[in-house]
UniProtKB/TrEMBL annotation:
It comes from Sphingomonas leidyi. Residues 175-332 form the Lytic transglycosylase MltA domain. One of its GO terms (molecular function) is peptidoglycan lytic transglycosylase activity. Keywords: Cell wall biogenesis/degradation, Lyase. This is peptidoglycan lytic exotransglycosylase. SMART domains: MltA (SM00925). Pfam families: 3D (PF06725), MltA (PF03562). It comes from the Bacteria.
Length: 444
């Protein structure tokens, strides 16, 4: 998926973390994200606002809001692995929630798109089975989007997982300068996946290594690691016809590789979407940690902008620092309406979100009531993220462009989340009584 979040210091200043972001974060912080299922899980993302062709707008100041109170309940017990064992309560009636008509219509369109996956996937949260979603999916096919609120009220009930306390961050689709053809100013190759990369399932050789994979290449009769970033940058893949495009800036491409996908804007204004096609199997290293430990970042400079500024000001040293991240991502051109999420479906700005599928079923709606107004409303879980872990953790997608960057870059909201599950699910699972909450003004 080709998307950026806010300034991900957790990834830049270290390795991938599955933890939840603390309250004490810099404005614009978003945790690292992982890409869709086809992307190797050992390759975490560093997400951030990079120096893009048309400038780098600051994170937008949040619009404050007062979240609806969660139903009093304990937090999920330590070690809880899935929503079904986290503690469940019935939430407020759907028609009491502040959901505007336009937002509901967007959610219905996205839900309709998710339905084929919902009815055939195994729900990792333990809350539902595919057949539970079939009635609402059948109804969604012909439901008038002008009455989308009525659709959700008819087919769903709200469920609170554990204490319902939620965190919402944001991400968006990045854009850097690039061209389909090599020309002056566009001379950094964007490579397709080479056909000599071999992936080995180690579980076939030992039960102790089940689920572990390595990538490499054959040299003579030996299986050896694939070329690392330095070797590729120095020409290991030249002359093989693997270039699908050319970027203008090696630093921008470096961070786009970490993200996994994005858009290239040519000098003629044409856009080319590229997405993850493969990875070389080499170790991922967060360069921010190296720079911090070496004292290279000035006080207050431990941000994405500070890291990029240092790399630009010290090009030779910066190149060496980037080479210390041996991991290298290969791309393919993507067609269609937009970037794809973990369901293999296009994600849509202001309605798609990344979640932990062990606590929110992929494809399901989730309602957020947060202390930042932009995040409030109904979101459809169509993606996952490496640091998006645990109950009620949602990473909201904002699309592409300056507005999306500005909103996602500063998104770090707290409040309450309720899942929307097929009506009758909670009764089957043995949940609690319906709660009542105040009815604030509807949002649009």
């Amino acid at each position: 998926m080709r998307i950026w979040g806010g300034v991900a210091l957790a990834a830049l200043l270290g390795a991938c973390s599955g933890g939840v972001v603390p309250h004490s974060v810099e404005p614009g912080y978003t945790p690292p994200r992982e890409a869709p299922r086809e992307r190797p899980r050992e390759m975490p993302r560093e997400s951030g606002r990079v120096s893009e062709p048309h400038g780098n707008p600051a994170a937008r100041q949040p619009i404050p809001a007062t979240p609806l109170a969660a139903i009093p309940a304990p937090a999920a017990p330590a070690g809880t692995l899935v929503a079904a064992s986290a503690g469940l309560l019935a939430g407020p009636a759907l028609d009491s929630l502040p959901l505007g008509d336009a937002a509901a219509a967007r959610a219905l369109v996205a839900y309709r798109l998710s339905c084929p996956s919902l009815v055939r996937r195994t729900d990792a949260s333990g809350l539902t089975q595919g057949r539970d979603w079939q009635p609402s999916c059948d109804a969604a096919k012909a439901w008038d989007e002008r009455d989308a609120r009525g659709f959700f009220a008819r087919w769903f009930e709200t469920v609170q997982v554990a204490d319902g306390k939620a965190q919402a961050t944001g991400y968006y689709e990045p854009e850097i300068a690039g061209s389909r053809h090599r020309r002056p100013g566009y001379e950094v190759p964007v490579y397709a996946k080479p056909d000599d990369i071999i992936e080995v399932d180690l579980g076939q050789f030992s039960a102790d290594m089940k689920g572990k994979r390595i990538r490499g290449r054959v040299a003579g009769k030996a299986f050896i690691p694939y070329y690392d970033r330095k070797e590729i940058d120095q020409g290991a893949l030249e002359g093989r016809g693997l270039e699908i495009a050319w970027a203008a800036d090696p630093i921008e491409l470096f961070f786009l590789q970490i993200q996994g996908s994005g858009r290239l804007r040519g000098p003629d204004g044409q856009l080319m979407r590229i997405g993850f096609a493969g990875q070389n199997g080499r170790e991922y290293v967060g360069i921010g940690a190296l720079m911090r430990d070496r004292g290279l970042l000035k006080p207050g400079g431990a941000s994405m902008q500070g890291i990029i500024a240092y790399l630009r000001e010290h090009p030779e040293e910066g190149r060496g620092i980037m080479w210390e991240n041996k991991s290298y991502v290969f791309f393919q051109e993507l067609k269609g309406a937009g970037p794809n999420g973990s369901l293999g479906l296009p994600v849509t700005g202001q309605v798609s979100a990344a979640v932990d599928p062990k606590f929110i079923p992929l494809g399901a709606p989730v309602f957020l009531s947060m202390d930042r107004a932009e995040a409030n409303g109904l979101w459809i879980a169509q993606d996952t993220g490496g640091a998006i872990k645990g109950p009620n953790r949602v990473d909201t997608f904002w699309g592409a462009g300056d507005d999306a960057r500005a909103i996602a870059g500063g998104m770090n909201a707290r409040g309450t989340a309720w899942l929307l599950l097929p009506a009758g699910t909670l009764s089957r699972l043995g949940g609690g009584p319906i709660a009542t909450v105040p009815t604030p003004q509807r949002q649009r």
